[in-house]
Design goal:
26 helices; 16% strand; single chain; Rossmann fold; 7-stranded parallel β-sheet; Arc Repressor Mutant, subunit A; 6-stranded parallel β-sheet
């Protein structure tokens, strides 16, 4: 039984009187000191399972997550709820990290978010044993598995934390998408002891899964959105297409907007907020759109382009119908789509020599001597880099991803770091400075009235907002900040937007760079298997789509009765039991020997009319084939 303090915390800070399914069980298991794996679907409320116990108990919860944007969103939200939380990631300076760690040590903080590559830095390692960690939450835990679809070597170092903080501190590993094989890998690599696996069903009973084979995707989209009400997401594979499809929908009178990672953060926030508020009915987006979405009434998720794995498709389509009302997940499919996915294998895996070229060029780009650079962080402009070395953008990007999988470096998406200010003098010394330097007095008062906490921490500021409040030009605000920094009153870090490259190991000479042929081949084969599986899902015409998806994650379910394949089968006017029984009999007979149609019908133990209907249906869906002797055989998939 979960103590009342946890439900009281949920009600006080989150405004809910009860937990969602499985949240309470996960919290109770962690509170009792057990290692836990929590498998919760997209939108299942994973963050509550560590945030509530972190707030309800004394001590600090360490949260490890690779998603810097999500990390910062959660910290900002917690702070707005008067919950003390801190984040440490690769976009911060050493001084910011030191202050953040000191604040967590002495300032009654409840949650410390850390990106996995920061765990290995000497600065973090030197302090970690001094913290009173109540438990460790590992988000996106599938990243620790080489069998997972998003393996990150930096996750492999997480288990070392156990030795530093004490093996009695429980671990909570969370993920929305993990096959049974990946779950076993998580347990082994996190050195979990008698791990309790708590899993909600992967089946989304309110989502109708549909695959539509269409050549003119635009015409289909307009027809569907004109006919079906409600708001939704259309996922595409490129930034250019997100804008093109949104403009096409607008030209047809359908309220739409587009979203991708290349847009400025302020614009992304504005577009997401407008869609969440219902100002835009449809958002056309790349897979960058997804983190932090809590809109419950999404009635459809349509994939214009097919993702390259079942995991990605399940996660993205799962953003529909979080209010448990009927919703649709539609995948648009064509022969061109099949070719594009098959070709993605070549694109995703550049030749080994090209991967080494990119690694060597990055070292030269930052003028890092061989043997140096470990844990160094660098702003990285992909376009400038490929222009300087005349590399292909796609090959370079995928080489970086592979170098990340090998553990040589980390490559982040664009981080939008706002400007930050920290007062480095005491309040008394600041007052003396204001008295002696009247020209700065009004500006310092403006800073202190607008933002709090600047004496103890670096605080994000907005120069545009300060300019509006003061009536001064933005450049004047910037100059004040620079001059106060030069006089030792504040430490001002100007904002910037950039992806980052982090050297997790010292730079190696090209001849010592090991791209293991076995690892390269294994990762490639894993990717090919995932592409084949999502292709099988798209081309399947007989198996229930919901059952297909849940089977992939190790869960067996019957037919949903709603998806396109089930609806076609329903037209046969047979019960699910009869249909499955007849199919099993046909399969058993034909796997022994091919038979003529009349022989097969005569061998069945069911009414001829029902058997014939199922045989015809199997022929229409190409599960049965005629051979040269005009005998039927079961098609092996």
């Amino acid at each position: 039984m979960l103590p009342d303090i946890y439900r009281e915390t949920l009600a006080r800070y989150w405004g809910f009187t009860s937990f969602r399914p499985l949240q309470e069980e996960i919290i109770a298991a962690v509170a009792s000191g057990k290692d836990v794996i929590g498998l919760l679907p997209t939108g299942g409320g994973k963050s509550v399972t560590y945030q509530v116990p972190a707030v309800a108990r004394e001590g600090l919860c360490l949260v490890i997550t690779p998603l810097i944007a999500l990390m910062r969103d959660q910290v900002n939200r917690l702070k707005s709820m008067n919950i003390k939380a801190m984040a440490i990631h690769s976009g911060m300076t050493r001084e910011e990290v030191e202050i953040a760690l000191d604040n967590c040590l002495y300032g009654d903080y409840r949650l410390l978010y850390v990106s996995p590559e920061r765990l290995q830095t000497p600065l973090f390692k030197s302090r970690v044993a001094r913290f009173n960690f109540t438990f460790v939450a590992v988000d996106e835990a599938h990243c620790i598995s080489q069998w997972g679809y998003d393996f990150r070597p930096s996750y492999l170092a997480i288990a070392e934390i156990r030795d530093m903080i004490g093996t009695e501190v429980p671990f909570l590993a969370l993920t929305a998408t993990a096959t049974p094989e990946v779950v076993k890998d998580i347990i082994a690599r996190l050195k979990m002891r008698n791990a309790q696996i708590l899993q909600s069903s992967f089946r989304r009973t309110n989502i109708t899964y549909v695959v539509r084979e269409v050549e003119d995707k635009g015409a289909y989209l307009v027809r569907s959105l004109t006919r079906e009400p409600g708001c939704g997401i259309v996922y595409v594979s490129s930034r250019r297409r997100s804008k093109e499809v949104a403009e096409m929908l607008l030209s047809k009178g359908i309220s739409a907007d587009f979203y991708h990672a290349g847009l400025p953060q302020e614009m992304r926030d504005r577009k997401q907020n407008a869609w969440s508020a219902g100002e835009a009915r449809v958002i056309v987006a790349t897979n960058a759109f997804g983190m932090g979405i809590d809109k419950a009434d999404v009635r459809f998720v349509i994939h214009w382009d097919c993702p390259d794995s079942v995991e990605a498709y399940y996660q993205e389509s799962g953003r529909a119908g979080r209010d448990n009302k009927p919703a649709f997940a539609v995948l648009l499919w064509s022969e061109d789509e099949k070719r594009r996915l098959a070709d993605s294998v070549r694109i995703k895996f550049p030749p080994v020599e090209r991967i080494k070229d990119v690694y060597e060029a990055i070292g030269n780009y930052y003028q890092l001597p061989v043997g140096s650079g470990k844990n160094s962080v660098h702003d990285f402009d992909l376009w400038k880099f490929v222009t300087a070395f005349r590399f292909s953008v796609t090959e370079t990007y995928n080489s970086l991803i592979f170098l990340q999988k090998e553990g040589y470096l980390e490559f982040t998406d664009e981080i939008n770091n706002p400007s930050r200010v920290h007062f480095v003098v005491s309040r008394d010394d600041l007052y003396k400075f204001q008295v002696a330097n009247e020209e700065y007095d009004r500006f310092i008062k403006l800073l202190l009235r607008t933002y709090s906490g600047m004496f103890s921490d670096f605080v994000p500021i907005n120069e545009e907002s300060l300019a509006n409040r003061s009536g001064l030009p933005r450049e004047a605000i910037y100059q004040y900040l620079l001059r106060l920094t030069s006089q030792g009153i504040i430490h001002f870090i100007p904002g910037k937007k950039s992806p980052l490259v982090i050297f997790t190991e010292e730079r190696l000479d090209r001849s010592h760079l090991k791209i293991s042929p076995e690892i390269y081949l294994r990762v490639k084969e894993n990717y090919i298997t995932r592409v084949e599986k999502i292709t099988e899902y798209a081309e399947n015409k007989t198996r229930c789509r919901s059952a297909f998806l849940t089977h992939y994650f190790g869960e067996e379910n019957g037919r949903c009765g709603l998806c396109d394949t089930c609806m076609e089968r329903n037209e046969l006017e047979l019960s699910k039991y009869e249909f499955d029984l007849i199919i099993d009999k046909i399969k058993d007979l034909l796997l022994i020997n091919p038979l003529r149609l009349e022989q097969l019908a005569a061998s069945m133990e069911f009414p001829a009319e029902k058997s014939t209907r199922v045989i015809r249906w199997l022929l229409d869906h190409e599960k049965l084939l005629y051979d040269d002797e005009h005998k039927l055989s079961w098609k092996h998939s």
